[in-house]
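INTERNAL AUDIT FORM
Audit reference: QA-55
Scope: verify that the stored structure record matches its stored sequence.
Auditor: D.O.
Record contents follow.
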Amino acid sequence: MGHVRLTTSLDPPYERLDAEWATLIAIREMLGVALKGRSSPTYEQALEFGKALSPSLFDSESTIIGSKEREITKEYRQRAEAESSLQSKPIEPLEIVDREITDFKAMLNTPGDRDLIGKRLDRLSNVRQLLQPKEYSENQLILRDLFKADRHLPTGSVDVDRDTYREFQLDADRGLRIRLLHPDKPEHTTGADLIYENYWDKRRLVRIAFVQYKIWDGSTLYSSRAGNLEAQMQKLKAVLCDDGYCKRPDGTKKRYRLPYCSAFLLCYCFG
């Protein structure tokens, strides 16, 4: 694979943004070819691959696309806050970007050499994508929680990735495994998207949690909107509750802080 020329910290942020976007698009197209059309990789998935492939480009303090606080988007958010204060009404960052895009489109259509204006317009389009509110599918949420969530694990924890699970060695005798079932046959059988497995060798103890993901409107989760929700809940009940996995252990005196249940419905709300 060829080498990517990296810009230095002295380069204008727009030039770095152009380089990152070009590389990210190339990685996304490469992943699409590798998947042979079975699915279309998202920009989030391409970015995760890019962080592993070129950490200096996508996973450093200088990165724009891969950082938590991107310099370009931070600029537009600060401008929106300032304009909101000056005009005594709320102004969104996207309003400022869209206003500039409209202005530059008008200038681009005037006679003469406008190549630099065209480049600036492309940069503004990239910035607009960064500022767009993200809408996640259930599949993206599951993959994000599996691979990207910050779990605040003990110092020295070992992280191991496999095709269908992610495993953390917490200490000498304790481990956490997160197993991916979605969207394959095991999900259809159990009704769960992920399984959390907590192992404690010293006490010969295993705790499990089967989790089904759904997106809702923040008010009510209707089975008619959630598609096969009722069927999945029935499968979880049959596999876990009816087989005794949720039964309180005999002779237990101390109450557990959660109900003795191994099946959970996790609802995400956007808006």
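Auditor finding: record pair retrieved intact. DSSP finds nine helices and six strands in the chain.
Action required: none
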